[in-house]
Design goal:
The strands form seven sheets. Strands 7, 8, 9, 10 and 11 form a five-stranded antiparallel β-sheet that branches. The protein has a five-stranded mixed β-sheet with strand order 24-28-27-26-25, with no helix packed on it. Strands 3-4-5-6 form a four-stranded antiparallel β-sheet, with no helix packed on it. It is an all-beta fold and about 300 residues long.
């Protein structure tokens, strides 16, 4: 088993070890590749298998996913939501060939997952070609799921049924290696933001509720978009295979961010914690570092993941 975890309480200035699930990296339907925590105690390691901790990192307990693979997971308040999928990808490409998707939920501290109450046609979402989804939670209270066909489901994270809010300007398309979409990156902050496109451009849309969408701009890129993040004060960051772009006005205008030593292959994930701080993960995990910002995404520096 080669999985290890590191934690930081100083936003990357110093790292220390954290107990990890006793499993390997992603390999078909086994292993894990991502982690989410709802608070300092309750967390999940997933992609494609699923493990849960209620003690801040140890012990970890494997969850029964009934042969399905977990592509996405987000937590809000005392609940977590996850996308379970039927896929045929092998090796590290565990999110390839996914053609059936379902939304599940679990209370923090629980070892069981149950299907979310959604309209009948969305209980099991099937596609002819390989697809993906995108799951976000706004303000810790409201969840949004971009379905494989581009519809937007929404509901309260505290329980109850989810309903169809509307149709997004684009569908997610097939999955990247980590399960995130290739053609649509969804984020939530001051509003919902959506980046649609492939190749060297992305069209940015905003929505207050997932029902109606407004085009903000079309952004030329140096490489395909991989991840989008926003926060409640309007800052947004878009990760690509060639670097990072940031917006200070809710996605209306964008500039290339200053990255000290952009890694080969660019970035696979970006997340903003608040108005100033954010983290970006290089696509090449073997570099053993993350990139952090403290000025709202304008400049980024590497933080090697090791004690120092």
């Amino acid at each position: 088993y080669c999985t290890s975890l590191a934690q930081t309480s100083s936003y990357g200035n110093k790292w220390s070890g954290l107990a990890a699930p006793v499993t390997g990296g992603p390999n078909g339907g086994a292993g894990v590749s991502q982690v989410r925590f709802a608070d300092l105690k309750h967390g999940w390691a997933f992609g494609p298998a699923l493990w849960q901790t209620s003690a801040g990192g140890w012990p970890w307990h494997q969850q029964d996913t009934h042969g399905l693979r977990v592509l996405d997971l987000e937590a809000g308040g005392q609940h977590a939501f996850a996308v379970f999928a039927s896929c045929t990808g092998t090796g590290a490409s565990y999110a390839a060939g996914c053609t059936s998707f379902s939304l599940y939920t679990s209370a923090t501290g629980s070892n069981s997952w149950t299907p979310v109450a959604v309209p009948a046609s969305f209980q099991t979402m099937t596609t002819r070609a390989a697809g993906s989804t995108s799951l976000v939670i706004a303000g810790g209270t409201t969840g949004y799921l971009l379905t494989p066909a581009g519809e937007v489901l929404t509901g309260a994270v505290t329980g109850g049924s989810w309903s169809v809010a509307g149709k997004a300007p684009c569908a997610p398309g097939p999955a990247q290696t980590d399960g995130s979409p290739t053609a649509a990156q969804l984020a939530t902050g001051k509003t919902l933001l959506l980046a649609c496109g492939s190749g060297n451009q992305a069209t940015i849309y905003s929505s207050a509720d997932g029902a109606s969408w407004h085009r903000l701009t079309t952004l030329p890129l140096a490489g395909p978009a991989t991840s989008l993040s926003s926060n409640s004060t309007g800052q947004a960051v878009l990760a690509t295979t060639a670097g990072l772009y940031y917006s200070a006005d809710g996605g209306k205008t964008w500039q290339a961010a200053s990255v000290a030593g952009t890694p080969a292959g660019g970035f696979s994930y970006v997340g903003m914690t608040n108005a100033t701080q954010g983290v970006a993960l290089p696509a090449k995990a073997s570099l053993g570092e993350v990139f952090v910002t403290s000025d709202g995404g304008r400049t980024w520096t590497a933080s090697p993941v090791r004690g120092r």
